[in-house]
């Protein structure tokens, strides 16, 4: 099903980054490369944008999203880090590690993005295009894989286009991504706990 949007595709660069930030600020959906897979970004603080994201992917809204931020200071505004969480963040960010942490009381990430939980999943991506978009937009961006729910995660812009053309506003084409595996997820509560294996080798 095509929801009738015209999906623009722009090569990564200054104009594409500016357009991506504008789409996010307007509550739209933009696909961009991360070092794991292509992500589908929406403003994490905008419930209407997040509702559109779940709909575009056909993803059930009880499956919470990862908030992507540009730096540790931004991460600490939305979640509470204990010492082990800080050590993990410092060791692996930016990179393919997601931490699940207790939400701060004034966390701006919408309840719809965290499926109403009192925890929030966060990561700082390493891909330069993802980092530029986060810096230009200036707030947390939820970014699940840019594919229809249940399909293989996309590693190229063409792959995103074949799943989501007509359902999202913009695709930023930054070429093929390197890892093609989702981020490793670690829950940081009483003691760090591996929730999903992924792009960080288990031995690390
Ligand atoms: P993805 O499907 O790659 O976007 O990764 C999102 C996954 O992160 C979800 O399917 C959950 O498994 C996990 N996740 C996100 N937020 C939370 C949370 N607050 N608590 C536990 N797991 C979470
Ligand atoms: Mg996925």
Protein described:
With 204 residues, the chain is α/β, with parallel strands linked by helices. The chain contains six helices and ten strands; from the N terminus they run βαββαβααββαβαβββ. The longest helix is centred in the first third of the chain and has 12 residues. Bound molecules: adenosine monophosphate and magnesium ion.
Topology:
Elements: E1 8-11, H1 14-25, E2 30-33, E3 38-43, H2 47-57, E4 66-68, H3 72-78, H4 83-92, E5 97-102, E6 119-123, H5 128-137, E7 141-142, H6 157-164, E8 170-173, E9 184-188, E10 192-196
Parallel strand pairs: 1-8, 2-8, 4-6, 5-9
Antiparallel strand pairs: 2-3, 3-7, 4-7, 5-6, 9-10
Helix pairs in contact: 1-5
This protein binds adenosine monophosphate and magnesium ion (MG).
